[in-house]
Amino acid sequence: MTHHKSNEAVGGETETGRGRGMPRRPDQEALERRTVLDREEAGLPTRAPEDPDAVYRAVREQVAHEVDTGSMPTGTAPRRDRGFPPTRY
User: pLDDT per residue over 34-45, tens digit each?
Assistant: First the structure.
């Protein structure tokens, strides 16, 4: 008993030399339209996401600001004084 399809069953068009494979360059406009539709179906915003580098820089600046003002601990205290892990572990 075989569990696989034959090459002829999955090979594509026999008259043109089987399947054509992937296109050299995908259609960018069709890809963008499909992405917007997929994002709508998933309930995500359809606008383009922000530049990841800009988001990274903004978060890094916020962390640096919080460290400078003292609202975020820097982890420079000795391990025994940090209180982690809790004693119940």
Answer: 988 998 999 988
